[in-house]
Give the backbone structure.
Amino acid sequence: MLMSKRLQVLLDDRELREIKRVASQHHMTVAEWVRQVLRAARGGVSTVPVDKKLKAVREATSHAYPTGEIERITAEIERGYRGDAA
Protein backbone atom coordinates (compact mmCIF):
# COMPACT_ATOMS: atom_id res chain seq x y z
CA MET A 1 0.00 0.00 0.00
CA LEU A 2 1.47 3.33 -1.06
CA MET A 3 1.26 6.25 1.32
CA SER A 4 1.24 9.82 0.08
CA LYS A 5 3.35 12.41 1.87
CA ARG A 6 3.06 16.15 1.67
CA LEU A 7 6.03 18.24 0.55
CA GLN A 8 6.06 21.95 1.27
CA VAL A 9 8.05 24.20 -1.03
CA LEU A 10 8.21 27.95 -0.52
CA LEU A 11 8.24 30.07 -3.68
CA ASP A 12 8.08 33.77 -4.26
CA ASP A 13 5.02 35.14 -6.04
CA ARG A 14 6.78 35.45 -9.39
CA GLU A 15 8.00 31.84 -9.34
CA LEU A 16 4.58 30.51 -8.38
CA ARG A 17 2.88 32.50 -11.15
CA GLU A 18 5.33 31.12 -13.70
CA ILE A 19 4.84 27.55 -12.48
CA LYS A 20 1.06 27.95 -12.59
CA ARG A 21 1.32 29.29 -16.14
CA VAL A 22 3.49 26.40 -17.31
CA ALA A 23 1.29 23.81 -15.60
CA SER A 24 -1.77 25.35 -17.20
CA GLN A 25 -0.14 25.22 -20.64
CA HIS A 26 0.36 21.47 -20.09
CA HIS A 27 -3.26 21.10 -18.91
CA MET A 28 -2.08 19.95 -15.48
CA THR A 29 -2.51 20.98 -11.91
CA VAL A 30 0.53 22.56 -10.32
CA ALA A 31 0.90 19.49 -8.10
CA GLU A 32 0.94 17.06 -11.04
CA TRP A 33 3.35 19.25 -13.03
CA VAL A 34 5.72 19.44 -10.04
CA ARG A 35 5.53 15.64 -9.52
CA GLN A 36 6.41 15.02 -13.16
CA VAL A 37 9.27 17.51 -13.14
CA LEU A 38 10.67 16.00 -9.94
CA ARG A 39 10.44 12.47 -11.40
CA ALA A 40 12.27 13.61 -14.53
CA ALA A 41 14.97 15.33 -12.47
CA ARG A 42 15.39 12.29 -10.25
CA GLY A 43 15.77 10.09 -13.35
CA GLY A 44 18.89 12.00 -14.39
CA VAL A 45 20.64 11.47 -11.07
CA SER A 46 23.00 8.53 -10.72
CA THR A 47 22.56 6.33 -7.67
CA VAL A 48 25.97 4.71 -8.10
CA PRO A 49 28.62 6.24 -5.83
CA VAL A 50 31.48 8.00 -7.63
CA ASP A 51 34.12 5.80 -5.96
CA LYS A 52 32.41 2.68 -7.33
CA LYS A 53 32.38 4.16 -10.84
CA LEU A 54 36.06 5.10 -10.59
CA LYS A 55 36.93 1.60 -9.38
CA ALA A 56 35.18 0.09 -12.42
CA VAL A 57 37.06 2.43 -14.78
CA ARG A 58 40.40 1.63 -13.13
CA GLU A 59 39.74 -2.11 -13.36
CA ALA A 60 38.71 -1.85 -17.00
CA THR A 61 41.83 0.10 -17.95
CA SER A 62 44.08 -2.45 -16.27
CA HIS A 63 43.17 -5.07 -18.91
CA ALA A 64 44.50 -5.39 -22.45
CA TYR A 65 41.56 -5.14 -24.82
CA PRO A 66 41.87 -5.40 -28.60
CA THR A 67 42.08 -2.05 -30.31
CA GLY A 68 42.20 -0.86 -33.87
CA GLU A 69 40.00 0.26 -36.71
CA ILE A 70 36.40 -0.75 -36.07
CA GLU A 71 36.09 -2.36 -39.52
CA ARG A 72 39.12 -4.59 -38.89
CA ILE A 73 38.01 -5.57 -35.38
CA THR A 74 34.47 -6.32 -36.60
CA ALA A 75 35.83 -8.46 -39.46
CA GLU A 76 38.00 -10.43 -37.01
CA ILE A 77 35.02 -11.02 -34.74
CA GLU A 78 32.87 -12.20 -37.67
CA ARG A 79 35.63 -14.53 -38.86
CA GLY A 80 35.74 -15.97 -35.35
CA TYR A 81 31.96 -16.57 -35.38
CA ARG A 82 32.24 -18.37 -38.71
CA GLY A 83 35.28 -20.37 -37.59
CA ASP A 84 37.42 -18.99 -40.42
CA ALA A 85 41.22 -18.98 -40.06
CA ALA A 86 42.81 -15.64 -39.26
